[in-house]
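As promised in the previous annual report, we have extended the structural survey to additional targets. Below is the entry for ABC transporter domain-containing protein.
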Amino acid sequence: MAQIRTSLGLCPQQNLLFDHLTVSEHLYFYCGVKGIPQTTCLEETGSMLSAFKLLEKRDTFSKSLSGGMKRKLAIIIALIGGSKVVILDEPTSGMDPVSRRTTWDLLQAYKQDRTILLTTHYMDEADVLGDRIAIMVQGTLRCCGSSVFLKRLYGPFPLLILRRVRHWRLLVPPFATPPSQSGVGYHIVMVKEPHCDIDEISKLIHYYASAATLETNVGNELSFILPQEYTHRFEALFTALEENQEKLGISSFGVSITTMEEVFLRVNHMEDSKPDIQATHSPSVGSKESKNKDVPSSIRGGFPTQSEDATIVFNTGCSLYCQQFCAMFAKRLMHSWRHWRVLLVQTLGFVISTLFLLKSGDLKYEDEKTRQMNLGEYGQTIVPFSISGRSNLTTSLLTHLENILKPGNHKIKEVQGDLLKYLEGNEECIHLCIVALSVKVAANRTELTVLFNNEAYHSPSLSLAVVDNILFMSLSGADASITVSNKPQPHPQAKESLGSAEGKVVALKIQLGMALLVSGFCFLPVAERTTKAKHMQFLSGVSVLVYWLSALVFDFIVFLVSCCLLLVVFKYCKIDIYVTDYHILETMLILTLFGWSAIPLTYLMSFLFSKSTSAYIKLIMFNYVSGILSILIDTAIAAKIPLTLSNTTKTVLLSSLLLFPTYNLGKCIGDYTVIYQRKIQCTQRQNVPKYLNCGKENTEKNIYSLKEHMIGKYLIAMAIAGLVFLLFIFFWENIFWKLRTFIHQHIYFGVFKRYKTDRISKELSGESEDKDVENERRRILYQPEKLLDSPVLIKELTKIYFKCPLTLAVKNISLAVQERECFGLLGFNGAGKTTTFQILTGERTPTTGDVFVDGISITKNILKELEKMGNFGQKYGKRFKQKRMSKFPIPGVSSTCRTPEETEGQWNYPPETVRSKIGYCPQFDALLEFMTGREIMIMYARIWGVPEHQIQSYVGKSLNSLDLEPHANYLISTYSGGNKRRLSTAIATMGKPSVILLDEPSTGMDPKARRLLWNTVIKIRESGKAVIITSHSMEECEALCTRLSIMVKGKLTCLGSPQYLKNKFGNIYILKAKVKSVETLKDFKIFITLTFPGSKLKQENQGILHYYIPSKDNSWGKLFGILEKAKEQFNLEDYSISQITLEQVFLAFANQDNTGNDDKA
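The corresponding structure token record, generated without further manual editing, is:
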């Protein structure tokens, strides 16, 4: 097993890389594991990194690589070390077409002396790389063989997919029952002239191939499928077409062979016993059924077509807003229900933390206890005693003193001489001598002097108690005694001070709980914004007011429920001041106004974060710390600690604190506590001291007053702050980013970028423009009135990113997309596709130019918001439009930009009207994963205004159109990548948008799901909508697009139908032939080389030859005539001739593009 592992290489489907190892360190590690010598390892690492174009990234950590680069590294790991058996599991997933094609070429080169087992969802990848191809269905191996063998065995049979530009004719998918046993089929695609005679073309084709079927008739393209059993007649057929090309109205035509994807779908369909929308019987050409203009629902597959949409009366006005509000509210409810643990942490965490804090460390005022005056309070002490003269009295006094001190083990120190000098000179007495006695006897007079240590607080009264007891015992006997006690009187002012402190402590404890509660309202806003789900909802027609108002209402309900639980906590903790009598209403008023201000502030601050958990933690810290600091600052100012501050500074500082809801809450709770505790104290006393301020003018003050120590100004501050925060949110969503863009693109561009004018001019005019692109531009510039009603009209669109270095993402694009047209926007990473889509959806604004959707200017409606702010936006915008081009002339950019007055009809539309014209499937799924597929579709149906009684049927048809019904009741978080893409596409097609934007919609789908998506897109297009699609799959573009363009470095380099572009830029034919015997293989190679000068052998494996034959001096008729004769002469088992693929055309253009990645453009 160890020997097997050293010769085995694996590239798993998921990248298993070490984040903190560099690219070269990965390769050194795996070489070491396989026991490769260091010298060999270094050489092999350098050569492979160079071949895969990763040499510049050799010292980069793997976590910093792009997805495509990670796949390349995984492939190198599988190949390195001389692996004899290499297993590659979807090795090129996530790569763009150029990288994928480069990887294919490298795998072809590295497969020598290796056995490679490869799995893939790209059937063209299997066709190019696979010497033998196996197809598995439900865990069973269904077939295995060469590409030619499988195409002959499972190729598509004659079928008919006939589509018209203005209405449906007939749709039959590619799985019809075959009328013959033909296998491989040829697709002949013709580019029509205006006078094209379809009937004559059909007659001509059926004369030579009676079983031929009409495949498509869309736009200016016409296609037929020709069974391979008629290849012997192809020479005459193509010769007749070429000779009568002008008469028949054919601009050009090309031929392609059956694809491996069609084989894959055929095999899967044979295993699928369930009825499928793609498995409908195909009527023969020319039948009555094929001429029906309406397609029955069974063939439509449940997709709501334009005629069906017309039967739905969409809600408008107040009904629509109410329905959208319900949809947004239900979304919030489902989020809380599915994330109930988060809701529990948010609410119960608030309640439990507040309860814990209130029960711990309570501040209570207690009267001081009675203190008995005796030396025992100070432990064992020394009592110095000095006697000057002797008498019976002095003897009695000394005896009684000893009796008093004996129980406490106090020592009597008899001092000779002056007692005061003894005390001053003896350090021991400083701490141990509390009381000292001196007796002087002179004649009949006895003088008793008592001294006390003033370091002991109670020593004066204690010394007198000792003397009084001695004297009393001398007079009344040894059993007599005097007990002296100290009982402090109650201090009302101390209680009042303690009440104020208690109010502040309660406020601080509530602030922590409130920080936990209100910070939790950031989770969904942050998640929706970062996943762009919010942008999708706005595109579908949700207004900013409805979106945020529904969020506020739901979160406010949660907040009020939590506040009711807080009142229960107050009652449990016996803080009756907040819950007795009418106080409960005043407490709820304070808490309600706090929620009104704190929740919008949480929404506003959520814009600063990109992760929900990070936002929650940081907002808790902000809310609590801001509350504590503001209370401390207020207390310091009230105590006159910062003496250096002027009165004006103090006023400004205190006023700024009113912006913090937690500060206002703390002050309200604190002052409210002091006010009512004072009232309680005043009402409980009959003779009230003056210092309690219990006069009528104080006890009957209105607590809502704006005076000092009243809560009125804090309540008003919270009410106003909540409104201000909401206005800031609306400003941010509607105006702020537009104002920022306006200033950035106009003032910044016009003033600070003058020195860049030459650079911009050079960029826009440095390259010659394709003739078709130029004609499209002229058509838009000189006939705008004829195209203004087009679903999409892009006029002189330019986007510049002002940074170092200056980046021109989109360069002067002009384009019109008509109804029932699917336009493909292709390009290498960084070509500008994503930027163009972002401008179309309103995420970004152009630097120059304009975009019209259904005649409504997106750019003008963005600037409309500035007009609402005053005349600045309109006047400055007009002045800039008129003067910018004269000050900064840019060749190739038209200066005939219409001002707002000139586009009056395109100006007065609310933003949601413009957005609702567009259906958008973003590149990365903007889905709410806590919802099910059905729930999110119902939400978008409500957003669009579908009547409630029609929502279920409407959503059901949309789900069925993409075969999502089996998954509809599962959470989106459980969906595969392909199902998420299908769901995103279904959402994009909902409602009544006139334009559908699909950004790589089939990423991650298997061929069957991808074909299902294509079928849906075709039906969307035929329903009267315009579709703009970007894709890395050239086969997808050929199947869907009526026109397409390839973007290179921000410019359109070509424009036309797929077949037109292949005819225009394709200069080769592709020949694949399988020679039965090895003996004739060499002779056949010589024959091809001599017959077709300039031909190139691209690949040879197991008798299968892959040639590129120049199209110069060769025609379709000539090629098929020669190969039909060669088939018998050289004993060919099979052969196929096809035109250059669209991908090869794309690669030719993409090789011109060496820019960055698509994230930037």
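Residues 712-752 form the longest helix (41 residues). The first strand starts at residue 8 and ends at 11. These points will be discussed at the next consortium meeting with the crystallography subgroup.
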